Amino acid sequence: MPDPCLLAVSAELPSSRWSTADLLASAGDRFSPRLVAMLSDLGVRTRHSVLANYPDVLFAGAEPEFEITASGLATRAVRDCLAKADIDPTTIGLVLGVTSSPGRLLPSLVCDLFASVPEIPREAVALSLEYLGCSAVAKVVDTARWFLNAEPGKRVLVCFMDAITPLSPPLPGEYGHFSEVTDRQDTVNAMHGFLFGDAAVAMLLGGEGAGPTFGPVAHLTNEQPDDAELGTMPDGGSDIPVVHGRRLYTLSQQVTPRGTHYAVSTVRSLLAGGSSGLSSPSEAGLMLLHTGSRRILDGLCTEFGVAPDGPEAASSYRILRDYGNTLGCSVPLMFADPVHREPGTGLVVAFGLSFSCGAFTVRIPDSGWRP
Q: Which residue ranges form the domains of the chain, and what is each CATH number?
């Protein structure tokens, strides 16, 4: 079974960008000093938003003003990716739309892409991979492998898109650190406005090419049934169809330790399979780790024997710093990071709410690679 090869990748960010300092200034004195310190230490310096007035939406009760729609951002990424690849579009046999924050429930992101990009063959398979949180990229790699094995000579077009800032709860009151409040949800709401950012990344995958190759892959989902409740967005579904204000986002304090456990367990499973070419994580020349927060990245680097300030994990920290946590787009943004990659084998690890984790290898060709 061929390993999927990355033929082209393109990232698109909304032009509206807000620094943590900008948002804290807009917040005024409604955050306690301890909460300000926590928000400043998430590892996020700037984030992009599809909203042209994001700070006013958060703190002044303004109606959202969209600079670009979520599907419009995805369309831009796909068009640029196809231009870079310079392929015959008729060879695209599968199109994946990957998001946990679609612009609308129906039509799906992938169907909107068919409507807005006429170059995509109408007979290509359209498949939505939605609400997988931050772990989606590993599912994409396995799905692409299955398809490319079944349809030799075809290509897979993937579009990751997450626009989370419009879902951030408004922050009209006063807020404290987790250690200072009795209602944890208030602090989660404040953190939501500072941790996340919006992005779209398109990838073209094929059975062969000059770019990096992906695989094998290991997965772990809901090892314990209660892990599914570590983080939720319950309202807006059929069980809770009425949404009052913006959707509620809950987050357990166990996310960091359970996420680290999932990441370590999944990597161990991957290496135990014997086909990764690595006997330990520390042998990887590249570590692309989901950007949950700086605390999470520091913990993963410790577990995997990688220096947080070393070159192996540099892209993980840089993407978090410049773009925030962009859910399923975080790891794809690292592949679009315009830096030269040295030849060798790396590890990719992504975990997130639902609760799921995926890990796979990336092999950089002998000539090196730059997106």
A: 213-364 (3.40.47.10)
Q: Are 292 and 316 in contact (CB under 8 A)?
A: no
Rounded Cα distance, 283 and 42, in Å: 28
Q: Are 243 and 235 in contact (CB under 8 A)?
A: yes
CA-based torsion, 319, 249, 266, 303: positive or negative? positive
Q: Angle at Cα 190 formed by Cα 188 and Cα 193, nearest 5°?
A: 110
Residue 352 · residue 134 · CB < 8 Å: yes
CA distance 233 to 181: 22
Alpha-carbon distance values, 337 to 10, 61, 89, 194 (Å)? 9, 35, 25, 22
Residue 361: strand, helix, or coil: strand
Could you give the CA distance from residue 97 to residue 217 in angstroms, rounded to a whole number?
A: 20
Res 247: pLDDT: 80
pLDDT of residue 237: 86
CA–CA separation, 318 and 314 (whole Å): 6
To which residue do tokens 């059929």 refer? 238
Instruction: Say if strands 5-12 and 92-101 run parallel, antiparallel, or are unpaired.
Output: unpaired
**CA–CA separation, 120 vs 104, rounded Å?**
21
The segments of the chain whose pLDDT lies below 50 read none
Please, what is the end-to-end C-alpha distance for the chain in angstroms?
Answer: 25
Q: Where are the alpha helices (DSSP H) in the chain?
A: 20-27, 33-40, 54-59, 70-85, 109-116, 136-150, 184-195, 255-272, 294-304, 314-323, 330-336
Distance CA 333, CA 346 (A): 16
What predicted TM-score, i.e. pTM, was given to this entire model? 0.97
For residue 59, give the DSSP letter.
Answer: H
The answer to whether the beta carbons of residues 79 and 85 sit under 8 Å apart is no
